[in-house]
Write a structure and sequence with these properties.
Low-confidence stretches: 1-47
Helix content: 55-70%
CATH class of the domain at 55-211: Mainly Alpha
Strand order of the largest sheet: 1-2
Order of helices and strands: HEEHHHHHH
Radius of gyration: 20 Å
CATH architecture of the domain at 55-211: Up-down Bundle
Oligomer: single chain
Number of strands: 2
Largest sheet: 2 strands, antiparallel
CATH topology of the domain at 55-211: Ferritin
Distance between the termini: 23 Å
């Protein structure tokens, strides 16, 4: 029996890393929106399919499932006040409008998250963690365009990491209730990302580094378009 392909192994490793939050800090920003790994308090250790699993509505709920609920709660606890403040202090109209909307959407989704946590018997924190509090202080200390850039960069980094972890939970959870909820979370976070990107302050330097992959095709020849691949049905014809 042949072993798994390298690409499959790499994909599984990436999903596992996202679930446990064990990736090295990504990106290369400095103090005006530097990339730091999102930490969660009160969430316990997140692990594989069976680690920390406990019975819940919809099936076994793992540590990774519970941690996602905690991280969503903590995202609301620091992004709501930052978004509200940015609605007043932002130097650009897009910053004031979009970050204000982000705060409003967080308020609404926090009610959804609290209801799901109650249904699945998951305890939620009532304050941001120490790192998130430091982000809030950093943003508050800025002014003008630096204020906009820092607020957007911090939020975009945190929301991007949370989006990736949500996808990992969606793909791996054994709990049917959590699987359905993860789809709601993905839609919510995608909306938040769009609002941040529409401010015009999301640049290459505000994004985390892409994951390392294997078996990727080499770059195309500059200035020459690659020929489109034939339809899959034509390739498969006669097989």
């Amino acid at each position: 029996m042949r072993g798994p392909r390298p690409a499959t192994v790499a994909a599984c490793a990436l999903a596992a890393a996202l679930l446990v939050g064990g990736c090295e800090p990504m990106g290369r920003q400095g103090t005006d929106g530097g990339v730091q790994q999102v930490q969660a308090t009160g969430g316990g250790a997140a692990g594989g399919a069976g680690e920390g699993a406990a019975p819940a509505d919809g099936g076994l709920l793992t540590s990774a499932d519970r941690l996602l609920l905690v991280q969503l709660r903590q995202a609301a606890l620091w992004e709501i006040p930052v978004g509200r403040a940015a609605a007043r202090r932002g130097s650009q109209g897009a910053t004031r409008k979009n970050l204000g909307q982000i705060a409003t959407r967080h308020i609404r989704f926090d009610a959804v998250n609290r209801a799901m946590a109650a249904k699945l018997n998951v305890a939620l924190p009532n304050s941001p963690d120490a790192e998130q509090q430091s982000w809030m202080s950093e943003i508050t200390g800025k002014s003008g365009t630096d204020y906009d850039k820092t607020a957007v960069a911090r939020m975009r980094t945190a929301q991007g990491l949370l989006y990736a972890r949500t996808a990992a939970v969606r793909a791996s959870t054994r709990n049917t209730t959590m699987r359905q909820y993860a789809q709601q979370v993905e839609a919510f976070l995608n909306g938040q990302l769009k609002l941040l990107e529409a401010t015009g302050f999301v640049t290459v330097d505000t994004l985390p580094d892409p994951p390392t992959v294997t078996e990727a095709p080499p770059p195309g020849v500059p200035g020459r378009r690659a020929s489109p691949a034939p339809a899959a049905t034509s390739v498969l014809a006669g097989r």
